[in-house]
Amino acid sequence: MYVRHLSLVDFRSYPTAELALEPGPSVFVGPNGHGKTNLVEAIGYVATLGSHRVATDAPLVRAGAARAVIRTAIIRDARELLVELEIVPGKANRARLNRSPVSRPREVLGALRTVLFAPEDLALVRGDPSERRRFADELLVARAPRFAGVRADYDRVLKQRNALLKTSAFARRAGARSAGATSSSAGDLRTLDVWDGHLATLGAELLAGRFEALSALTPYVEKAYDAVSNGRGRARIAYRSSLAPDDEPRPPVELVADREVIAAQLLNALARVRSQEVERGTTLVGPHRDDLVLQLGDLLAKGYASHGESWSFALALKLASYDLLNADGGEPVLILDDVFAELDTQRRDRLAELVVDASQVLVTAAVAHDVPDALQGTRFDVADGEVRRVR
């Protein structure tokens, strides 16, 4: 799989851009702030419908423009797919696949697979649990795009359930005493059982998918960390679920992926914390409260790993994702966004050795000399919003 052509209209800093790409390594070189990352961000957006830099779509549209358009021609299994995305802040985005409109943008997921490694990924090791949950869910969706709908439905139910709990908690704290207010509050809480059922069903589907994906990923992480670190330490993954009363993390391979079993566990956990949730006005158990626990040997990577070890672990997670997706079928495009400046010479060369045979590798760098010789393929210079092929 590789991206043959990228076309942009009013995306980030580009009024327009047309870029012909080839298999193998391509390197984008230019000063910081001149648009290198914008190019690979657009390609990553086609694969995930999200940015690795911002949480919302508004910053992706060039200042003064009403919308942005990304078009990509993708070669996959010896045939070409054309994906077109129209990003309209404040409104529903639109998508076309092979020039035909689709009802929802997420229907194009799976047309392109990417694995992106960027300086922001250090947060996978050192950041909040939300970073690791996002990593797990993006891997899940990359393997099985239908889970994008599961995630969206779960988030919708969670939002509704939290709104109900918050309304009830506010009424309690305000000391509402009228019969009408009391009746309304009681009626609202009676519907909580309905939302519990929806949350348990969707949460079970999401959790089972996570367990299966992470179980498959684990051996690849161990192998990738061993390769990146030259055998200095063993990387391990465990999963901390809010369903467990003791909150004890367990290896994903040991977790039951049976949807009915997990749904029953979720319902039991919700019943157990019902009074706390009513008091605090928020949902206290479910996939949105879980964490992926990263360990080097028997020690937590967060807090104990050195800077170099943290980089190696983050890199191992992304290389493992690449290897797993490749094993699933459909080799992803690998994007290395401004990472070589963050790595020492040994890790640079090791990374290049591990990825040089990928079908397509897109690299951004402020200085060409930061990129190892093995990845010095097609080169584009990027400056003042213009992209020029020089080699």
Could you describe the 3D structure shown?
Helix content is 43%, strand content 22%. With 391 residues, it is α/β, with parallel strands linked by helices. The protein has 2 domains: 1-113 and 330-391, Rossmann fold (3-Layer(aba) Sandwich); 121-328, RecF/RecN/SMC, N-terminal domain (Glutathione S-transferase Yfyf (Class Pi), Chain A, domain 2, Up-down Bundle), CATH 1.20.1050. Strand 5 and strand 6 form a beta hairpin. The radius of gyration is 23 Å and the shape is globular.
- Highest CATH level, the class of the largest domain: Mainly Alpha
> Quick check: average pLDDT?
91
Low-confidence stretches: 177-187
- Count of DSSP H/I helices: 11
Which helices and strands, and how do they pair?
Layout: E1 2-11, E2 14-20, E3 24-29, H1 36-48, E4 68-76, E5 79-87, E6 94-97, E7 100-101, E8 114-117, H2 123-126, H3 129-143, H4 147-174, H5 179-190, H6 192-228, E9 235-240, H7 259-272, H8 274-280, E10 291-296, E11 299-300, H9 301-304, H10 307-328, E12 333-337, H11 345-355, E13 360-365, E14 378-383, E15 386-389
Parallel strand pairs: 3-13, 3-14, 8-12, 12-13
Antiparallel strand pairs: 1-2, 1-4, 4-5, 5-6, 6-7, 9-10, 10-11, 14-15
Helix pairs in contact: 3-6, 4-5, 4-6, 4-8, 6-7, 6-10
Question: In summary, what is this structure?
Answer:
Helix content is 43%, strand content 22%. It is an alpha/beta fold.
